[in-house]
Amino acid sequence: MAAFMISLRAKADDSKIGPARYLRIGDDGAQTALSPTAWRKAVLDSFTEKTPQGLPRGDLLFYVHGFNTSFKDALKGDADNRAKLAAHGWTGVYVSYDWPSLGETLGYYADRSNARASANALIDSALAMFVGAIVPDCQVRVSLMAHSMGAFVVRQAFSWAYQDVKTNAKAWSISQLLLVAGDVSQGSLSADQDGGRWFNKYVGRTTIYSNRFDSVLKISDLKNGEPTPRAGRVGLPADAPASFCDIDCSALFNGLDLSLAQRVNPATAHCFYFKQDAFWRDAVLTLEGGIDRHVIPTRALLGTTDNRFTLKTKPITAAEYQAALQLAQAGN
């Protein structure tokens, strides 16, 4: 799977924002810096499938990491994500958006400040490049996945995107947005708030993965002093847009065979998703976008609310998953 990165970290100081660096990541982890134009060409050239007009066809996924992530950790996390996506049948092109998170537990406020400052560059240095490249016969679907404070970066970016003349000179949209353990206030995703309003405008489907055992996000509530808890802990507000859906992963986490030390470690509940096949199966079927959220077989409707689901604790069979994956791919 081809891999690329846009990094906003200053080369001389991992914790500071610097000019955007456009990197191609080799199979051995080696990083090659390219000019923005050469980088975008390399990304588009890496699509193995083409339209009859010779243009790229397929999926492009931007991944935005969260709080307390060093550059070294970001590279390792990207490699793990690519391996999991490939193992579950996703065949697109992976691009990570690396912002200067300190990689230190005590650096929450500094990370929050860097996240806010990094948000506008997500539009300028990343999405705008591909908005400008899209032509009528281009069949590249752009999606976003963000973890933890990365969801805050994305929310801020979309809140400002409507003001960006360069971006909005052309019609554009994101196919899928996946927020995993999102460190954004639940209320900000209401239909009349910036998060809900602008995600609903620019995104085909927004999916929230939440876990009520996530103590990292409970701490975030206290640090931010915002009036509502984190969406990545308690899910969507009642008045979220109809295009949003919440996948409650609490039962999956609670059923894991964990030691007491693992269970009380805040990072476990906050990051466990990425080690679970159940999550990756649901995520890949979501990214493919070809089947409705109500027939994705890795989840079950939670109660009678149309957009609330629980991630199943009993795994579906490999045959069931392959059948659903083929339908999801064929739907595109």
From TrEMBL:
Entry-linked InterPro entries: AB_hydrolase_fold, DUF900_hydrolase
TM region positions: none
Pfam annotation, one family: DUF900
SUPFAM superfamilies noted in UniProt: alpha/beta-Hydrolases (SSF53474)
Coiled coil feature spans: none
PANTHER family, per the entry: ABC TRANSMEMBRANE TYPE-1 DOMAIN-CONTAINING PROTEIN, TRANSMEMBRANE PROTEIN
Protein name (record): Alpha/beta hydrolase family protein DUF900
Organism: Caulobacter rhizosphaerae
